[in-house]
Amino acid sequence: MKSLHVEAGRHLYGGALQVVFLLQGLKARGEPAVLVCPHGSAIAEAARPHALRVHEIAMKGDADFGMVGRLQALIREERPDIVHLHSRRGSDLWGGLAARREGVPAVLSRRVDNPEPRWWVKRKYRLYARVIAISEGIRQVLLGEGLSTDQVVCVHSAVDTGRYRPEPADRAWLRAEFGLAEDEATLAMAAQFIPRKGHRTLLTALPAVLAVHPRTRTLLFGQGPELEAIQDLVREAGLGERVLFPGFRRDLERVLPCIDVMVHPAEMEGLGVALLQAAACGLPIVAGRAGGIPEIVRPRLNGELIEPGDAAALAQHLTNLLGDPALRARYGAAGRQLVLDEFSVDAMVDGNLAVYRACVGAAPG
């Protein structure tokens, strides 16, 4: 079965990384796949070894009406059995219209849990034979907006458990790389600097944590529009010596095994690839009870959950974990096993392929 995949993201993380995993798995199963992505995007080079072809085209977002024609031309050229739309930024709507005009069934991956207006849902989702939610939390949002149980399928995102693993943990390297002292504990958060990720909740919680564990450093990995504002808040709170901003890193598989606790107090989250990576590396996690996060973080098994915005609860859980190495080790081992059992790349690829097979020959509602 030949599939054509449309990914509008320019950076190789989150959803785009899942697309590369999927293309790799499809090739291993003898299923040809073609990728369509923006000019100059990081996914293009990463996907070339796995895709039958990679087409780089102009993708200018929701207002790019011309994307319909460009995608139609490629669908006509490639003649896929199914079109898989992996992102928004216009590719969801315009890709769905292009597939419908060419008579090819389309599926849409939904990676975020923010609701959409019901009138828009009713019209837009008619374009898709199936919607693939990357978490049960997202699936429930879509069902609540009126989609049928037959149309929405949950296929979890995956993590490369060979790349992300507890060992080796080179803590001497971590200390040298980030200027940490040997006796300092480490918290880490890896997320875009946008409001819904919960950086402000963490900063509110940190003074209480530091009052009990003053030799703690927090590493905030990532980039985004809120970065400068968060840096200002850190300075204003007098936390400049305790909070570091290492930026976006491509070597988290080396960093994470050396961290003591992963923090992610998000207010909205489709699933959380960084949490899968942290769990695969054997880290205990404290995160927000939002979206698909409870599918990764199971209280008293591999971490703890807080209600979004509850800085006091966050501080308490972090304080407890920093003071209990045995609990951290137990949670970390359970998290690694959870990922191996439920979030493998093979399971994700097989789940998507099953959706394709169910859709071929069927038209969207």
Automatic annotation (TrEMBL):
GO MF annotations in UniProt: hexosyltransferase activity
Pfam families: Glyco_transf_4, Glycos_transf_1
Glycosyl transferase family domain span: 174-337
Residues of the Glycosyltransferase subfamily 4-like N-terminal domain: 15-163
Gene3D superfamilies: Glycogen Phosphorylase B
Keyword terms: Transferase
InterPro entries the UniProt entry points to: Glyco_trans_1, Glyco_trans_4-like_N, Glycosyltransferase_grp1
PANTHER family: SULFOQUINOVOSYL TRANSFERASE SQD2
Protein's name in the database: Glycosyl transferase, group 1 family protein
Organism of provenance: Methylibium petroleiphilum (strain ATCC BAA-1232 / LMG 22953 / PM1)
